Amino acid sequence: MIINKNVNKVLLVICYLQFVICISGCFYASIAIRNFDDAIFDSAKKVENKIKDPVKKDIRLSALWGGHSTILLQMYNKVIIFDPYFNNHLGGVFLRKVETGLDVDYLNQLDLICVSHSHMDHLCYSSIGVLSEKFPNAKLVFPYGVEKYLPAFDVDMVRIDNRNVNPNKIGKTILIDSIMVTPVYVAHTGGRYAIDTYTWKVEGATGYILQYRDLCIYFAGDTGYDSTAFKKIGNNFKIDLAFIPIGPCRNCDSLGFRQHTSSSEGLLLFRDLNAKYMIPMHYGAIRYMSDENYPLVVLEELLNTTAYGDLKNKVKILKVGEQIIFNE
Amino acid sequence: MIYKLIVTVLIIFLDISIGFSQDYKENKTKEYFTWGLMQMIPSPTLYQDTDGNNSRVQFGLKWQIIPINISFKTNKYVSNSQFFMINPVRRFTGSIETFIQPEITIAEFKYSNIKSFGVSTGSRLMFPLVEYGENLSGSLGMKYTFRKSFDEVSKGYAGLEAGIYIFGGMIGLQYTQNFNSRTNYNVSLYIKYF
After folding, report:
1. Sheet of A156-160, strands arranged across
2. Ranges of chain A whose pLDDT falls below 70
3. Helix axes of A2-24 and B28-39: crossing angle, nearest 10 degrees
4. What is A165-182 written as a DSSP string?
5. Do A260 and A290 form a contact (C-beta atoms < 8 A)?
6. Are B154 and B112 in contact (CB under 8 A)?
7. Residue A286 and residue A297: Cα distance in Å, rounded?
8. Pairing relation of β-strands A61-67 and A70-75?
9. Which of A34, A262, A313, B187 is the most buried if burial means most Cβ atoms within 10 Å?
10. Could you tell me the pTM of the whole model?
């Protein structure tokens, strides 16, 4: 009887702990459940006619959207990839709705691989593995804290120190392969496996400013909206092109998302930056709390309103696998 | 007592929230405390219980403690050895580790004439299979289980262990072949969160 009573208590504690784990990972769990059937029974939509010459000669600036947050950027003779993610499954269970629009076989040059943070939809081991095998002279750049989530790759790994960055302070610029790399503030979390993100709140997320010759590029990675931080970035840099996330969001025309920008917050962020052009990202690949393309639908609606109409010609919406060239 | 423990755990975990990366303040006490709670989650295990003529399986629980992990794939910013609180990435990408597994069966063995409580210790090699091991990894190891028989003739037995893991090496299936005719094998649903 005494043994049974103790066993019951032990089982009660075990059940409670499992409940706690579910709560701490509820965001991932809810998405996993929603995506699980697709992951088993469906497949990612194919991207037809992938660009066969993503790296071009005599280009001033170009950007190819690989889907989600994967951006292939060319600044004159330098080629940079942000958050490469080529797998059709995320974490083994989340199905990508559309496959990546970038075929690595067609890529013939790569100088920098920039990782914004270690979450599963931004840091993909096999994608970095493929790139590091093909381009052993490329540099893998990541913020402080991400090193814990990275195995050794056969490329030079460069950790940038973003620990002193805050909404009022820009990070220290370092020169990597003739490109000036500056970490900037993001309202976002580090970690990868739920408890490290939400309970330990570990470090490891950054935005990037890249400067090369006369060009200045901003890549936000994942971030919530912080007007102070983005106005500060806009005041410090004359940004030519900004890659800004517009999801995930449920009510994408509203404000107040803590660690992601909604469609409307993405436009506010762009306005704070005072950049020349914006390319929206972080939608279309994975179904989070709404349809994967809902952030884009809302963005297009907002651009047709008087409140945001002035931004319409500056926001360049790309299809997965589409490349845009800026020669002015 | 149990309710006090639950309330304490609840208070600790009420701190689940979004903390922005650049606001990080190291709090090792909290990290180790919550990590320690996670280690209380056992791996359900089935043990063979036989005397040669009769055979059945006995349900039990096993806890996973890893005192030392030496990784083969760490980058230049991270030490190749880590103690107790092991980042899953270093485990599933390829590593060797020692482990201690306290284990207990819910009821006494019926035929095996061995005690319900035991402690296994040994070492295992973990290797990646799919997506650098994050989606699928495997392990091979050997161990010795200290589990006395009621007649005190036997103090324990050796065994070979093989495992396969998903979800960053946190959930898996482990099979152990023991060199003991009274409990030839056991099969565990492996659970270890960090």
Report:
1. A156-160, A139-143, A112-114, A78-82, A70-75, A61-67, A323-326
2. 1-37
3. 130
4. -BTTBPPPPEEETTEEEE
5. no
6. no
7. 15
8. antiparallel
9. A262
10. 0.90
Q: Where are the beta strands (DSSP E) in B17-170?
A: 43-50, 55-62, 65-71, 81-83, 95-105, 117-130, 136-146, 156-166
Residues of A in contact with B42 (CB under 8 A): 14
* CB contacts, 8 Å: A208 with chain B: none
A247-297 per-position pLDDT tens digit: 899 899 999 888 999 999 999 999 999 999 999 999 999 888 788 999 999
For residue B121, pLDDT over 70 is answered with yes
Round to whole Å and give the CA distance between A262 and B186: 51
Which of B5, B6, B19 minimises the CB distance to A201? B19
- In this prediction the ipTM stands at 0.89
**Which residues on chain A are in Cβ contact (under 8 Å) with B194?**
193, 195-196
Q: Strand B81-83 to strand B117-130: parallel, antiparallel, or no bridges (unpaired)?
A: unpaired
Alpha-carbon gap, residue A261 to A280, rounded angstroms: 11
CB-based contact B131 A166, cutoff 8 Å: no
Residue A19 structure tokens: 């409940």
Share the mean pLDDT of chain B.
91
> Which positions 142-181 of B are in contact with A (Cβ < 8 Å)?
166-168, 170
Q: 255-274 in A: which are within 8 Å (CB) of B?
A: 258-259
Tell me the shortest Cα–Cα distance from B105 to chain A, in angstroms: 11
How far is it, in rounded angstroms, from Cα B25 to Cα A203? 9
- b/e map of A157-181 (b: 16 or more CB within 10 Å)? bbbbebeebbbeebbeeeebbebeb
In one-letter notation, the amino acid at residue A46 is K
Tens digits of residue pLDDT in B29-61: 888 988 998 899 999 999 999 998 999 999 999
- Which amino acid, residue B69? N
Spatial contact of A205 and B21, defined as CB atoms under 8 Å apart: yes
Tokens of A172: 């220290």
